[in-house]
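Running low. Invent one:
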Amino acid sequence: MSKLAEAFERFGPAYMNEFEDTMPSVHRKALHDILACHTNALGGSIHKCKDCGTEVYLNHSCRNRACPKCQNEKTDAWAENLREKLLPVAHFHVIVTLPAELRDLVRSNQRKANAVLMKAAFATLRKLSKGNIGAIGVLHTWSRSLIYHPHVHFIVPAGWVSNDGSTWTPSNPGFLVPIPAFKKVFPAIFAKMLRKELPGIKLPQRIWQKKWNVRMIPFDGGLDNLINYLARYIYRIAISDNRIIEVTDTHVIFRGDKRPVKLTGQEFIRRFLQHVPPKGFHKVRYFGIMHPANTTLCHRIRLTLPAKAERKTEAKPEKPAFICPDCGCIHAIVRLIVPNRTLSRAPP
């Protein structure tokens, strides 16, 4: 059992008893799925070795995108697909973070407010750019201590396309748009879009005196590290199992920014579940020339650019679903079975 599932098993019943009537359905599902992952509750399959005939029962995974044990294959596939979509140019890593005074408002209106954050941030980049630009945005909502901390990461090609789509102009390698101007323009665009989506909301007046946090980091080489970093958070959320140090009778202790964080069991579950996105919400969005509607345009641009040196990667060996515990064979006959079937031979 994973440490996250252990925490949910230990503290989940009390949490459900107190909050079940007010919990969003996606929170209840995430809690139940993580507890059921790789258990008899989800059923499993019998793998029979072709060589020696040994039968082994393997439980199914929950495949919930909040589960830290699942989705590794999807994560790798997304990262590889993104590498193929990127133009052979330098890129910028742009991070736009909302002030702390807006966290509660956004958390209470996650579907609309987080979508506005992503749209407004790109609209600001486009407004301050010299031409048609593109970006791939990935939404994050957590800090290392699991506090609700909405911010968006963009991968932005360093340059723009002419209005007729015929010419690519590279930007200054160390400069995308002026950050001081971005910090002035973005709050106004964000507020205007948010008021349109959520009529009648009142924004805290303090946000207009705040210095909004924006970072723009140029990437020429080493973009793979950024892609891999973002990919880890596309299909999983908030915390990986290896960050959890200990689950005690009353608390969960995990690694934070600089020191371990100790939370009561119920507070840990609350902080974790607040990062489960609403059903159907897309944490990854494509803007401008990087939008799927502009695939042909990107292909045409790519043909006009000098090709970069081909990236050398070692192919990851495919992980077999079954390795016979008796003879080591990786070939198996699979037969699905119904939940809660008990076999004499447990998973290896």
Summary: The chain has two domains: 1-68+239-274+319-348, 72-234+277-304.
